[in-house]
């Protein structure tokens, strides 16, 4: 993956830049010791690494604004960073950039259950938001699998979703307001405690913008009362097509599960070896979870069972208590770890229309043979968000490139069947050069013009999201 | 000169290409265009230029109930969409209102106009607004470029989300030609608890209590001494939730409305039917719910009446108050029915947001030909 050459003129001025940052920030907020900046050299896309020129860890919005103003005036690229769990290289630094991290912006500012929101600094982790809400009987719905580590800042920047987004939506559906620092250092408030605002939906534009428009320092998040209970069921099928059909029939039936997860046969094998979850040996397993009171849950399970029975499942296992539930989720939760044991893998993130799932799975199988690399599938089936895991051996020269080529073919396939390149992990650097598969040149040009409005000199996370060639002219403005 | 005497050309393109050509022509000549769908919105007479309506660009492109997705051309009448969804047991979950009664207009609301207005009704409290169900758009910008953004899948974070920008932009950034929406299963059972003899403050307390329960209240509105709570779901869910809520509000006088009464009641609440049929100015005010009782009292002190929706998160104010007085009390107030009130229908934004919005507008519409004067532009 190509990244632009670091700007020599910035590298030469590194000491002045650090001094200028120290001039406006507390002593411990600026890190330039190469030993320490190394910790910021990559996000969870670890194949690409580069330590930044410096790292800034502010504690307040005002400090972010000061840091941003310095970088803006001195023409230094800024890479915003939350916890660095992005899988698309969105938080990957360049040698000539300053990383502005939200790690110390970790205060919960206000819990307002009467008006059903929580206001936080964006460096708080996703899980801790739900944890502080628990005693109040509320929760925050978006729950990415990385929730233990990932921050609200990263969630907003990536518009992250989780297993429960079939019912509750993704970040954009649960975000009511945000405080944003623009590249000039100006602080802007978008939305707030009201459920709606008029005027252009700048908040909607910001969400999922991958650190292209501004640095998000605070947020109003919508919170929901906790359901009375939840129970999963496991349904095994001996054909991927029939499993896909089951997903569509459940959705059409009027029952709205909170999650429908799908695991294919290679994934099931790996999971069994690793976690001994006791899953059936079959071509595909669905885990479907429903919520409500005990009676409501029983009724929904019965409805889903009736739908599944018509399709003659290999197994239908419903959880009757917390232990059963844990056992059903155990394999799914350990899937990524299980695959990791088999070797290196890259985790893709395309979305396809649910009806195209069987065809897409079949084609991925064919592509796997063609590229000579194994692939396993585990994903959120209710909304067609696929996560093919391509296995390869990083120590064998050329294998990473082969895995990437295979991955690109899969993502092209997703677009071809009416889907998109990324459902939740973002474009970052990983899918940047595939953007023209999904968008024509004018579509991309319009998006880049929108970035121009917020970041006229392209100092915020440049060289991400947009194909390098297409964005070259915009990025040049930073240099001039 | 009154608006009736301005002679306008009406453009009614049948295809996207034709529409793009018309816009490109107006761009070249810097001639303004007043864009509309079904034209159920009145009070647009102050917008200069020829009219362009998407009315003739009609029809559903695809509807996949099993995928919960619908793609339709912008001019498709909303009733046509709704009838089609009902036949598959589905619906647009955000309940787009029909404001013809309130606005005293005729014409047919279109799906493009719905998206352009981010038109959203009572269920927004649970299901979100139109923008939360919009998957993608095709549109023609102010230079006549045909552009697209988003797609037809539930989850999509590929690039910047321009669809959200277009949604609620009232035709100032581009003219929508096609929209992709998420549909949802229609609840199989529904009912409403009517809590009678309460005032704003008590209504708000019942809302706050009800909305902190896990019973998925799908409507919480108040007018004329009655607070309503709508519950929906599978039949056993409905029965259970009704019982639990009745226990919770045992101290009040409660009646339970059945499915049929529920449908009629919430259609009327959605369309603000209680404030239809007059000329009095009508304002729509999003608020922090706990502020609602004090705000409604201040608004009523200007004369007129109020009602609440969204569990107190939305105030409707129908009264003769001066625009400046209304906005002093409620800075987010939007003027839906003019009734002689002058000035912008849209609330003022912070200086920074206003600047960003105007710059965005110039990117999409460099010649300033799309609905000039609307939304402060
Ligand atoms: C094991 C694992 C499981 C995962 N599961 C999921 C999942 O289920 N669903 C899902 O959606 N994602 C998932 N992810 C991806 C990732 O966790 C999410 O994208 C997450 O939201 C990133 O948060 P972060 O705090 O780590 O952000 P980072 O990785 O630090 O940054 C992500 C992006 O946000 C930008 N950014 C960071 N902070 C700011 C800020 N303050 N203002 C503006 N931009 C900013 C960065 O520049 C970068 O582009 C997973 C990742 C891993 C490793
Ligand atoms: C001042 C005002 C505020 C309103 N606010 C709300 C609100 O907040 N929520 C709500 O639910 N309803 C609102 N409405 C009602 C709303 O306008 C209608 O529900 C809906 O837009 C009717 O559709 P239509 O096809 O008749 O649109 P029209 O009346 O033809 O147009 C409505 C708006 O959308 C634009 N428009 C129409 N078609 C397109 C298109 N294809 N591409 C781009 N732009 C297009 C028009 O330029 C116009 O600004 C408001 C009405 C007015 C007059």
UniProtKB/TrEMBL annotation, chain A:
Keywords: FAD, Flavoprotein, Oxidoreductase. It comes from the Bacteria. Its cofactor is FAD. It holds the Pfam family FAD-oxidase_C. Residues 48-226 form the FAD-binding PCMH-type domain. This is FAD-binding protein.
From TrEMBL, chain B:
Signal peptide: none annotated. Its EC number is 1.1.99.14. SUPFAM superfamilies: FAD-binding/transporter-associated domain-like, FAD-linked oxidases, C-terminal domain. The lineage of its organism: Bacteria, Pseudomonadati, Pseudomonadota, Alphaproteobacteria, Rhodobacterales. This is Glycolate oxidase FAD binding subunit. It comes from the Bacteria. PROSITE patterns: FAD_PCMH. It comes from Paracoccus saliphilus. Residues 1-186 form the FAD-binding PCMH-type domain. Keywords: FAD, Flavoprotein, Oxidoreductase. GO terms for molecular function: FAD binding; glycolate dehydrogenase activity.
């Amino acid at each position: 993956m190509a990244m632009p050459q670091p700007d020599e003129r910035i590298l030469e001025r590194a000491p002045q830049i650090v001094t200028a940052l120290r001039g406006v920030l507390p002593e411990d907020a600026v890190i330039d010791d190469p030993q320490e900046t190394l910790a910021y050299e990559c996000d969870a896309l670890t194949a690409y690494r580069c330590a930044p020129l410096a790292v800034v860890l502010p504690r307040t919005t005002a400090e972010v604004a000061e840091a941003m103003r310095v970088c803006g005036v001195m023409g230094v690229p800024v890479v915003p960073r939350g916890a660095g769990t992005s899988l698309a290289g969105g938080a990957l630094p360049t040698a000539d950039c300053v990383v502005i991290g939200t790690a110390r912006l970790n205060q919960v500012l206000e819990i307002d259950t009467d008006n059903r929101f929580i206001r936080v600094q964006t460096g708080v982790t996703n899980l801790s938001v739900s944890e502080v809400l628990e005693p109040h009987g509320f929760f925050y719905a978006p729950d990415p699998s990385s929730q233990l580590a990932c921050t609200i800042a990263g969630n907003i920047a990536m518009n992250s979703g989780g297993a429960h987004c079939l019912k509750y939506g993704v970040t954009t559906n649960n975000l009511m307001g945000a405080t944003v620092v623009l590249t000039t250092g100006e602080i802007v408030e978008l939305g707030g405690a009201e459920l709606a605002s008029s005027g252009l939906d700048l908040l909607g534009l910001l969400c999922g913008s991958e650190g292209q428009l501004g640095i998000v320092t605070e947020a109003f998040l919508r919170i929901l009362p906790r359901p009375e209970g939840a129970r999963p069921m496991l349904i095994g099928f001996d054909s991927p097509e029939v499993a896909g059909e089951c997903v569509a029939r459940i959705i059409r039936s009027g029952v709205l599960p909170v999650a429908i997860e799908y695991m294919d046969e290679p994934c099931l094998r790996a999971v069994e070896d690793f976690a001994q979850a006791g899953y059936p040996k079959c071509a595909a397993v669905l885990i479907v979870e429903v919520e409500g009171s005990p009676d409501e849950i029983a009724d929904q399970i019965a409805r889903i069972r009736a739908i599944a029975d018509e399709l003659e499942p290999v197994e239908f296992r419903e959880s009757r208590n917390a232990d059963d539930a844990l056992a059903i989720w155990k394999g799914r939760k350990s899937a990524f770890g299980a695959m990791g044991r088999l070797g290196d893998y890259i985790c893709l993130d395309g979305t396809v229309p649910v009806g195209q799932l069987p065809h897409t799975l079949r084609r991925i199988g064919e592509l796997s043979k063609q590229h000579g690399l194994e692939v396993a599938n585990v994903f959120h089936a209710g909304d067609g968000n696929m996560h093919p895991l391509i296995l390869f051996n990083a120590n064998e020269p050329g294998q990473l490139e082969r895995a990437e080529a295979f991955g690109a073919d899969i993502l092209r396939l997703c677009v071809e069947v009416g889907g998109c390149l990324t459902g939740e992990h973002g474009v970052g650097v990983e899918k940047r050069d595939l953007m023209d598969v999904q968008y024509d040149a004018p579509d991309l040009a319009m998006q880049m013009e929108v970035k121009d409005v917020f970041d006229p000199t392209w100092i915020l996370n440049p060289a991400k999201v947009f194909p390098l060639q297409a964005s070259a002219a915009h990025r040049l403005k930073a240099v001039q | 000169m009154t608006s009736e005497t301005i002679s306008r050309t009406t453009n009614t393109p049948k295809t996207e290409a034709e529409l793009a050509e018309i816009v490109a022509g107006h761009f070249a000549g810097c001639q303004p265009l007043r864009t509309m769908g079904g034209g159920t919105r009145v009070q647009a007479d102050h917008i200069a230029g020829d009219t362009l309506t998407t009315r003739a660009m009609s029809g559903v492109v695809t509807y996949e109930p099993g995928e919960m997705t619908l793609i339709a051309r912008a001019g498709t009448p909303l009733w046509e969409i709704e009838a089609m969804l009902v036949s598959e047991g589905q619906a647009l979950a955000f309940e787009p209102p029909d404001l013809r009664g309130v606005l005293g207009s005729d014409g047919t609301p279109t799906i493009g106009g719905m998206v352009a207005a981010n038109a959203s009704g009572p269920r927004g409290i649970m299901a979100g607004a139109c923008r939360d169900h919009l998957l993608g758009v095709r549109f023609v910008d102010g230079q006549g470029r045909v552009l697209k953004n988003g797609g037809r899948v539930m989850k999509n974070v590929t690039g910047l989300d321009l669809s959200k920008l277009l949604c609620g932009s009232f035709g100032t950034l581009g003219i929508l030609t096609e929209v992709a929406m998420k549909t949802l299963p229609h609840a199989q059972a529904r009912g409403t608890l009517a809590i009678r003899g309460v005032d704003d403050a008590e209504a708000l307390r019942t809302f706050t209590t009800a909305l902190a329960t896990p019973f998925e209240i799908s409507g919480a509105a108040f007018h004329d001494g009655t607070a309503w709570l709508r519950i929906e779901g599978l039949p056993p869910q409905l029965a259970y939730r009704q019982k639990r809520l009745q226990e919770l509000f045992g101290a009040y006088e409660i009646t339970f409305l059945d499915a049929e009464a529920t449908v009629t009641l919430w259609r009327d609440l959605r369309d603000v039917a209680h404030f239809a049929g007059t000329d009095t100015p009508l304002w729509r005010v999003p608020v922090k719910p706990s502020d609602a009782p004090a705000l409604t009292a201040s608004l009523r002190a200007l004369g007129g009446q109020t009602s609440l929706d969204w569990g107190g998160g939305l105030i409707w104010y129908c009264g003769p108050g001066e625009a400046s007085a209304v906005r002093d009390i409620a800075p987010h107030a939007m003027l839906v029915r003019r009734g002689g009130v002058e000035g912008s229908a849209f609330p003022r934004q912070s200086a920074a947001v206003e600047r960003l919005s105007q710059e965005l507008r110039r990117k999409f519409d460099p010649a300033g030909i799309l609905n000039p004067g609307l939304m402060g532009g």
